[in-house]
Amino acid sequence: MQKGAIRVQTENIFPIIKKFLYSDHEIFIRELVSNAVDATQKLKTLASVGEFKGELGNIDIEVRLDKEKKTITIADHGVGMTAEEVDKYINQVAFSGAEEFLKKYKGQENGTNIIGHFGLGFYSSFMVSSKVEIFSRSWKDGAAAVRWECDGSPEYELEEVTKEERGTEIVMHINEESEEFLDEGRIRSILTKFCKFLPVPVKFEGQQLNNTTPAWTKKPSELTTEDYQNFYKELYPFAEAPLFWIHLNVDYPFSLTGILYFPKITKSYEIQKDKINLYSNQVYVTDEVKDIVPEFLMLLHGVIDSPDIPLNVSRSYLQGDPNVKKINAHITKKVADKLDEMFRNDRKGFEEKWESIGLFVKYGMMTDDKFMDKANKFLVLENVDGGTFYTREEYKAAAEALQTNKEGKLVILYATNPVQQDSYVQAAKNKGFVVVKMETLVDAAFISNIEAKWENVQFTRVDADIADNLIDKDENNNTVLTADQEGKLKEIFTAQVTQPNIKVELKGLNADAQPVIVTRPEFMRRMKDMASMGGGGMSWYAAMPD
Ligand code: ADP
Ligand code: MG
């Protein structure tokens, strides 16, 4: 038997790293600036434990562009590297110094806010460079400054040089295919995307581009309502003010911070997805937060930050990641708790926001049973006349005497269009029934879904044949139309007739004469509602389960 270690041929692996490390080449800026942040945070940690006794001085990170020389330089004043460290951390691909540092200084201030984990980020510079140089001087007393150079082949040069300032400069000689990056606008936009909230000042062309202490990194007790609103503006300068927000702050069993904002959703609201940004230690990662954020909350806005979500891995991996699952469940729980708290503490305020909240609550109840269990207490149904809201229990109390069917089920009567269905609504009200509004796009799917889950409840549209059955047939229930109702009815009929071969005659719309009432079987109507959903830019709804 023979045992041994697999050997990797650098000549073969290098091109693979260069080509496949990241599909997005612009990521190199994120990686190198993150390394500069790490180096600066490490120095702060060393200072806080007393190992580094010198002056921190200027710790800004500077990004420089030289169009003539075709170079991009990233300079920091962090820990720097000695020749041995360059050999250890740079020449050994996938030996992550960050990991090592973390183990040693875990629990110290700044010690765990280190971005790197993989030991590959630096090599992303070769995706865009024909040559990369490192100039570095370590914080350690008497350490000589070094210059390292590599053209992307597995050979490097390392020599002593003079460098006055502590820290590291990475100089990338941009290759021909990547000259698009030699543009101020491009660099600025990449920096704004990835570095906007980095914890160390990042400067480009003399200007600081980042807010080093964004709201989500602070304690909720340190923040006022205005602070939350201002941060929202910082994220989405043109958006309407948010309705309310949830500040996430977990240390264990995973680490997660963030602020999720509920946008105001009205009938004319244009669905905006991908408005939640994922960060890892204040470095922007992505706006694709599927799996991390529950599907029904994808319309929320804001930021979540978790160093426990892998930075550089594929989507399919994320799905199976245990931390991602836990974070998803945590967010659901937090949202349910917040809504429950709002409902209990300020019911009126809660009801006023229901038009917006209702969408999330209903979709959440359809897709997540744990959420449904909690939401059963705060889901409200609005009376067709508006202003009065019933929880399921309250509706039952108000309606069960008259609205229990032969099978003993509570019949919830609803109108999908209170104006069009007005004569039915009036008839039902005259009977003492309680009719609620179910007029939003999510409602048809919600009703089918929740009816199967709620025991002993049946939803019936106010103009359906079942509702008619509930109304005692022996009684004469002709409705007398007011002049106003008559006007409305005429309007509706006229608007509805679009096919030329259908002729509508309105007869005797006065006194106690009854206009024609057409009822359709409830089942057929639902099928049609379901089929007509999903168009007109509302494709989000089409994905909803029935
Ligand atoms: P990671 O950041 O995941 O550790 P990288 O490939 O990005 O991997 O970097 C490898 C190592 O090189 C780092 O862990 C660090 O020790 C060292 N390094 C990279 N950039 C710097 C820098 N600007 N200052 C000091 N050390 C650095
Ligand atoms: Mg790194």
TrEMBL record:
It holds the Pfam family HATPase_c_3. ATP binds at residues 31, 35, 76, 81, 96-97, 168, 315. InterPro entries: HATPase_C_sf (IPR036890), HSP90_C (IPR037196), Hsp90_fam (IPR001404), Hsp90_N (IPR020575), Ribosomal_Su5_D2-typ_SF (IPR020568). One of its GO terms (molecular function) is ATP-dependent protein folding chaperone. Signal peptide: none annotated. Keywords: ATP-binding, Chaperone, Cytoplasm, Nucleotide-binding, Stress response. Belongs to the heat shock protein 90 family. NCBIfam families: PRK05218.1 (NF003555). This is Chaperone protein HtpG. The lineage of its organism: Bacteria, Pseudomonadati, Bacteroidota, Chitinophagia, Chitinophagales.
